[in-house]
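stage 2 :: seqdesign
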């Protein structure tokens, strides 16, 4: 089988398509013939050497795939060959074939394309987990979504629409605002030309927001915390400010690390604010929870309430271009790799 290997930390040129024998499913596993795999920001960071959770290089990453079961290991009773499925392998998904424990695999809705199937898991599970398990958003609340035209951002905007009267503020480049409006974003904000904190304060007449979803990190966490109303929740779920450019930049890493605010229980108590962290990558040990989130999301998909936005699909041979598309912030929604 062919797979996209990260041969070492570096620019997109370190990616290589290599051929290896097909894996055989172990007890409790199924083998999936991958038809589409999601490419995530974290995997671009892994290639740059900025993702501590990534396997040692050379490695194949890929958290999410959609495809067809083509071999079933001993002990698997509920998945048959020929079933169209979505799987959450965590790593190894950027390959033509992958073996995955059966509990990390769910059948796809009949009407779903493989591209939608690969685009949905990570972005929507992350957004769903933050909004409904952690922030527990309520009707009429105000939610600030950073990186709103990215995969997670668009998923969050769509999921906010499933709750009555939720008002959303989305930061993105101006060229992406039409898409934000189509997805129901109440107030798109061009963070490149305006200070989003000033803009949110102006739009809310100084009262702020209930929830901030922030994967920017560093001093943005401080700004977001400052925008919270009483009972407000800041959710930190990424540190994109660490990675600008193609490679690891030590000076930038140090400057960003220094700018991380120190929140204290006492300070949060005084202001009635909460800070939470979410890293879905560290929830693979709680696979029942991820699976439940995914099944709920697939039901919302069947009901037409959510629909992944596919930016572009790239063949494996063009994986470097796919990485660059995310790295250069040109994508609107999900970038997909096709074996
Ligand atoms: N903790 C978790 O479990 C989890 C799970 C999934 C993703 N994440 C994190 O969530 C973030 C978004 O992921 P995604 O897949 O939605 O990304 P994406 O689809 O690649 O979208 C990223 C967009 O964010 C905007 N952006 C603003 N500031 C940026 C910056 N400093 N660096 C890079 N992009 C910036 C860019 O659009 P503009 O043109 O509008 O600036 C960019 O196109 C990433 O940091 C990722 O690591 C965390």
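stage 2 :: out
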């Amino acid at each position: 089988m062919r797979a996209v290997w990260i041969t070492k930390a570096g620019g997109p040129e370190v990616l290589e398509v290599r051929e290896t024998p097909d894996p055989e499913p172990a007890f409790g596993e199924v083998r999936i013939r991958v038809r589409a795999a999601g490419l995530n920001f974290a995997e671009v960071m892994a290639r740059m050497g900025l993702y501590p959770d990534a396997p040692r290089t050379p490695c194949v990453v890929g958290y999410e795939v959609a495809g067809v079961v083509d071999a079933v290991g001993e002990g698997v009773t509920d998945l048959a060959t020929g079933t169209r499925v979505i799987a959450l392998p965590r790593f190894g998904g950027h390959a033509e074939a992958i073996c995955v424990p059966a509990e990390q695999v769910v059948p796809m809705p009949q009407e779903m394309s493989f591209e939608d199937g690969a685009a949905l898991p990570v972005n929507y599970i992350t957004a769903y987990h933050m909004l409904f398990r952690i922030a527990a958003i309520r009707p009429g609340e105000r939610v600030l979504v950073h990186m709103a035209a990215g995969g997670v951002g668009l998923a969050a905007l769509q999921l906010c629409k499933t709750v009555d009267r939720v008002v959303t503020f989305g930061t993105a480049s101006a060229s992406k605002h039409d898409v934000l409006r189509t997805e129901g974003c109440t107030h798109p904000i061009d963070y490149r030309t305006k200070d989003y904190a000033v803009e949110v304060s102006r739009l809310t007449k100084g009262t702020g927001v209930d929830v901030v979803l922030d994967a920017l990190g560093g001093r943005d966490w401080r700004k977001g915390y400052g925008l919270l109303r009483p009972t407000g929740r800041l959710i930190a779920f990424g540190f994109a400010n660490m990675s600008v450019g193609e490679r690891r930049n030590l000076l930038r890493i140090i400057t960003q690390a220094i700018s991380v605010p120190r929140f204290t229980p006492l300070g949060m108590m005084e202001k009635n604010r909460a800070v939470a962290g979410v890293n879905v990558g560290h929830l693979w040990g709680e696979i029942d929870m991820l699976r439940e989130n995914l099944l709920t999301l697939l039901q919302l998909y069947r009901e037409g309430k959510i629909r992944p936005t596919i930016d572009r699909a790239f063949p494996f041979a063009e994986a470097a271009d796919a990485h660059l598309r995310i790295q250069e912030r040109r994508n609107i929604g999900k970038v997909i790799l096709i074996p």
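stage 3 :: structure notes
- The mean pLDDT is 95.
- The radius of gyration is 20 Å.
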